[in-house]
Amino acid sequence: MNKKLNLLQVYRGIAALLVVLSHGATILYREFGQNTLLQIFHFGWIGVDFFFVLSGFIIFYIHQYDLGKPHKLKSFIIKRFIRIYPLYWIVLASKVLASTFANYKDTIYQTSAGEILKAFLLVPQDSEILNTKFIGVSWTLSYEIFFYCLVAALILFNTKICRAIIVAWMVGVLLNLFNLLPIGNNFPLMFIFDEHNLEFVFGCLAAYTISQSKFKFKNSLIYASLFLLVLSIINTKYGEYNVSGIPSLISYGIPFTLLIIGSVYLEMSSNVNIPLILIYLGDASYSIYLTHGFFLNNVSKILDALFRKSEVLYTVVNFNIIAFLTVVIAVTMGCLIHTYLEKPLIINLRNKVFAKIT
Q: Quick check: is 120 in a domain?
């Protein structure tokens, strides 16, 4: 990109916070046995839909001219690998080691070598396994890797046959969306033809639209997307992943696509002043996203134990305050991990790897 799109970074940070708040509501209810104000953000899982659309946009916007150029493949794979795997492996290894030393029953000791290998490679597997034994949100990274593989195939081959296969796959996803694809409960096929995959395609279409045309009504696109998002959120019931039976691909994928298009046009045509803290949250979103579950679980336990020592304090202190502190600590720890681990790690790896290539 010729210009860093800070608005998209802000949206990335907001999406990560929504996921944290949504998971915080669930985890704190499990710990305390009662709801907190975090329940307001029960729809926070929509942050994942935004991540998928945004990922599709960024990858296509940056690499659209690399398609059909095999010599670009190595650079693409290295960049994507460094962005996803090193920090993920550190967090996952920490989780596995913590489970081992804490002797968590029904977790690591009943985990097969195949499940561990799949978790480290981000090979798709049942979300229940990931939630109980590994990193719950890593299921989304499996979709990221699958999308990267499709882009890598186009960089390497970009032939009529390859494009035809991808178009056929997209048709299959649409058919599966409306239960017209007879795949049953076959997990690999369910993953390949899952509707989330088309959110990456939406992002690609957004990037293609921006690179091919100019749009004067950028503000209208932003307002329309926000209106559709609010409408979808209002009609989303607690604990459900669709809007009155409408798939999230439509209810959230389309509005997020419009939001990205409008915001990119806006930032390209005018200067948008954004507080640095919001951009920083966007930069730290991956660290926050990977680690928030661990900190929400453990910080809530610690705070609960501290307040229970004093019956007076426990009755005076509102559970909402505990919930707020838990979320703040989880986000803060994610930011610290970004600053002192993720960022230096990525910079050092890129410098060393690409220095060898050049």
A: yes
Nearest alpha carbon to residue 17 among 237, 199, 226, 289: 289
Give residues with Cβ within 8 angstroms of 12, minimum separation 6.
Answer: 50, 51, 54, 282, 285
pLDDT at residue 268 in the model:
87
Please give the DSSP secondary-structure letter assigned to residue 342. Answer: I
Residue 169 pLDDT > 60: yes
317 pLDDT more than 80: no
* Domain range enclosing 190: 6-357
Residue 269 within a domain: yes
In this structure, are residues 282 and 10 in contact, taking their beta carbons and an 8 Å threshold?
Answer: yes
- 1 found inside a domain: no
Distance CA 214, CA 245 (A): 35
Runs of H (alpha helix) within 157-245: 160-177, 187-192, 196-212, 218-234
Tell me the per-residue pLDDT of 229-263, one tens digit each, with 9 for 90 and over: 999 998 887 666 677 778 889 999 999 999 999 99
Domain-located, residue 310: yes
CB contact at 8 A, 206 and 260: yes
The two tokens of residue 19 are 């996921």
- Binned at pLDDT 50, 70 and 90, residue 318 comes out as confident
| Structural element, H or E, at residue 145 | helix 138-156
31 or 130: which carries more pLDDT confidence? 130
Longest dimension (CA), the chain: 72
- Total domains in the chain come to 1
Neighbours of 207 (CB within 10 A): 22
How far, in Å, are 73, 155, 178, 284 from residue 148 at the CA level? 11, 10, 25, 21
